[in-house]
Structures are given as C-alpha cells and as structure tokens.
Amino acid sequence: MSLGSSLGHSLRRCVAAAGIGAETLGSLDANPVPADWRHVTKIDPETAKLLPVAYPLYLANTDAVSVGGSTAVTADNTEETFRLLARAPVPAFHEPSEARHVTEETRELAAFLALPEVLNGETEALVGTLGEGLAYLHDEMVPALLREKLPAALYRAVGDRLVDFATSWLLEAAVFEAYVVQNPDSAAARRSGVDESDVLSPATARERAMVADRHLDSEIVYVEYSGTYGGDEAADVLRAVSESVDGARVWYGGGIDDREKTAEMLAVGADTVVVGDCFHDVADEEVEVCARAVEALGVAPSADEIRSWFDDAVDPVETAAARYLRTTPRVDDPEAAAERSLLVALALCFGALPAVVGESRPSVERTRSLLSAVDADAADRLDAALSAGDPEAADGDPLDDYCARVAAALSDADPPRLRHLSLSTLSVSR
Ligand SMILES: CC(C)=CCC/C(C)=C/CC/C(C)=C/CC/C(C)=C/COP(=O)(O)OP(=O)(O)O
Ligand SMILES: O=P(O)(O)OC[C@@H](O)CO
C-alpha cells in the first residue's frame, strides 16, 4: 500500500470516528463526505461578496456550506465569514486556496478542511501548493499553537514529536477535492494554470477521476465550470466520471441557477451540486430592495406599510432569492419561500433602522414585532435556523443576539466583524 493510500485509509477511519461523516467503520462506504448531500452552497469570503442578512433561513435548505474562493481571500475575511456562519443551521467546511487562510480560529469553526487538488492544471495546483501548505502547518502554525497551549518545559521536551503528530493529524482530518477545472475563463482556472488546451474530454476526465479515486484516495471528484453552466458537455463528463469512480463523491459546480440545471446535473451522475454566485446575488438583491423600501417608506414604517409596498414593488418569481431557492430540491414552493425571506430582510432592516438613525432607542422588540407581523412564523423560523447552529456561538437568545448584530452592521458599530452582511452596505442618510 502506498503512503498516500495508507494515509487515505487512516484518514477515513479518523474522520469517520470523529463523527464528521455519516459512515461507520466496516461499512463498504467509508467516505466521510456524506453521500446524501445533494446541494452545497459555496460562500466566498472575499469582502465584495456579501451574505444575505436572512442567510440562516436560506441555508436551512442546503446540505452544507463551503467557505473559500480564489480571489481577494485573506485569513481575516475567512475568519469573519466563519464567525457569521457559526450560527448557520448546516455544517460549514473550509476550502482554502492558500494555507495561510487556515488559522486556529478557522480550524475550530470549520466542520472540516477540504483541500483542492487540480487534476488538469499545473503541477503547482496538484502538489505544489499542498507541499507549501504542509510545510507551513509543520513549521509555523502547529509549533505556534503548541507553544501557546503547552507549558514551556513540556514543549522543549516533546515539542518536535508533537509537531509531527499534530501535523499528520490535521492532514488526516481533511478531505481532498480532486478538481477537473473545465472553464478556462474563471478565477479557479487562472489560479490552477488551466487554459483551453487543458479542458478534458469525457474519456480523459474519466481516467483522471480513476486516478483520484483509486490512487490519490480523493474523497471528492469535482467537475468545476465555475461561473458558467456546463450543459451537455458537463453532462458527458459527469456520466463518464460517475461511472468510473468507486468511493469518491462526484460534485458538479458552475452556473447553477434554476431547478432544471440542478436536476440535470444530478440525473447524469453528480451526487451533489455546488451553488456559488447565485447565493451572493441574493445579498445584493436584499440591499437593493431595502434601499428602495427606505426611499419609499422612510426609516420607521409599520408592518402593514412594508407588506403593501412589497406586494406592489416586488415580484417574488423574478427575484434572485427565488432563483437560489429553486436550485435546491428541498424547497417545495421557492417563490413563496423567497417572498417570506425577503420580508424577513425588510423586517430586520426596519427593526434596527430607527435606532440607527437616532430616532429611537435600540429595540430588539421592534424587530420581533415586525417579523411576526409580516409573516406569523418568521420569528420562529429564524430562531430555529439560528438555534440549529453552534449553541455556544453566542450567549443569550439567538434571535436577540442576531437582531443586535444586524443593528451593529447597519450602524457601522463593528464593520470589520460584520462587513459581510448585506445590510452593512446599505447607506441611509441620517
Ligand atoms: C495544507 C493546507 C493547510 C493548505 C493547502 C492549500 C491548498 C492545497 C490550496 C490549493 C489551491 C489551489 C490549487 C486552488 C485551485 C483553484 C480552485 C479549484 C479553487 C476553488 O475554486 P473557487 O474558490 O470556487 O473559485 P472561484 O473563486 O472561481 O469561485
Ligand atoms: O459560482 P458558481 O458559478 O455557482 O460556481 C460554483 C462553484 O463551482 C465555484 O467553485
């Protein structure tokens, strides 16, 4: 058994034992990445890409969140994103594009690490960055962590051996995503040195997927059309790849923005679709809808005024919110869910605004009452989605805590911490 393969097997035992996946030792399927994930939402920590303020509601309809991106990502904006997602109702894992994006905090907040390895790019994208990453873990991050946690005498005595052990442990608790990057005109392609000539035919993609699955022991083979829908070409690749892999999950990402595209990619062999841009569009839409509402209604409208403005001004069918919700097979009525979620964004906005512009004292009660008035179940649904996340993520009541955070985002009280929330970019004259 090769070193890579034996590492892969012990990784699966370790991750399965840690309870990250649904698989158990001795079962035929030892892949820790759940086979029943159909829909993953990819959130880019880049500060220009925002999170909808109603994200707990949207993310209740996906299976997991992947945090990562290839442009303008830093350790700081990655930590900020994970802090917000600590209250998300589904696991958030970390897909770093650079080792230095992995910090003690991201490691603690992420469900697991998913490391990209590109099967059709430059050597750098397959093993180069990984090698640098491992050296960084071994030489810098792990020693710093152990020095901080251990008494100095103990560190002097056994530090070196512990560094070796902890580095191996960190790697074993990671999963590998073997990418086939098929859109040369994407940030992911530029990052991995993929050009037109590297795009794979279904037959070659099949061969590389077999290497990833059987030799590299990659947990995921990821057919990546980032930014564009792969259509028939992607379908051919997915058919070839999915028929050839044994243990790896097959993921598809790129341009998914409606139900048919999700269904098509799942039908031709993807276990999971990954939806990225379409989710960030919802955040931009929230800002635009809230800005229009403030212009029409002022800063302190009643719930009835909000509701009737919404009915006149917004067609839920045409919204980015509905587009995102249509991508996930779990939502029965995406248009109704979009309407409810946009009304929640408006309630969160108008609940906080009067205090933000100095017209009243801060009041979570105002938000709660607007939420209940625009939709009887809204406060309960938001509360349930927030409570499903890490119960230790905040003290006190999750909904109260979240309303206070939204107000802080609107008032610039703590912009670095909350600058990913859509409403932090809403400008209201005071
Ligand atoms: C060992 C540790 C701690 C880290 C290793 C870090 C590694 C291996 C990083 C690999 C970086 C790499 C080769 C990335 C390839 C590009 C890629 C496939 C990125 C994923 O795509 P998205 O981030 O979704 O791209 P967009 O920004 O276009 O959406
Ligand atoms: O942003 P989109 O095009 O949805 O792509 C999602 C994901 O595959 C990117 O890695």
Overview of the structural elements:
There is one protein chain. The protein is α/β, with parallel strands linked by helices and 430 residues long. It has two domains: 3-32 and 113-275, Alpha-Beta Barrel (TIM Barrel), CATH 3.20.20; 280-425, no CATH class. The protein is 53% helix and 9% strand. The chain has 18 helices and eight strands. Strands 3-2-1-8-7-6-5-4 form an eight-stranded parallel sheet. Strand 2 (64-67), helix 3 and strand 3 form a beta-alpha-beta unit. Helix 8 (202-215) packs parallel to helix 9, helix 12 crosses helix 15 (364-374) and helix 14 (334-356) packs across helix 17 (398-411). Mean pLDDT is 91; it is low at 1-26. Bound molecules: geranylgeranyl diphosphate and SN-glycerol-1-phosphate. SN-glycerol-1-phosphate binds at residues 42, 188, 224, 226-227, 253-256, 274-278.
SSE order and pairing:
Layout lengths: L2 H15 L21 E5 L11 H5 L4 E4 L7 H11 L6 E3 L9 H6 L3 E6 L4 H27 L2 H21 L1 E8 L5 H6 L9 H14 L4 E5 L6 H14 L4 E5 L5 H9 L4 E4 L1 H21 L5 H11 L6 H7 L7 H23 L7 H11 L3 H10 L10 H14 L3 H4 L12
Parallel strand pairs: 1-2, 1-8, 2-3, 4-5, 5-6, 6-7, 7-8
SN-glycerol-1-phosphate binds next to β8 and α11.
Q: What is the residue-mean pLDDT, rounded to a whole number?
A: 91
CATH architecture of the largest domain: Alpha-Beta Barrel
What kind of sheet is the major sheet?
Answer: 8 strands, parallel
Number of domains: 2
End-to-end Cα distance, whole Å, is: 67 Å
CATH superfamily of the largest domain: FMN-linked oxidoreductases
Bound molecules: geranylgeranyl diphosphate, SN-glycerol-1-phosphate
Organism: Halosimplex carlsbadense 2-9-1
Catalytic activity: sn-glycerol 1-phosphate + (2E,6E,10E)-geranylgeranyl diphosphate = sn-3-O-(geranylgeranyl)glycerol 1-phosphate + diphosphate
Protein name: phosphoglycerol geranylgeranyltransferase
GO molecular function: heptaprenylglyceryl phosphate synthase activity; metal ion binding; phosphoglycerol geranylgeranyltransferase activity
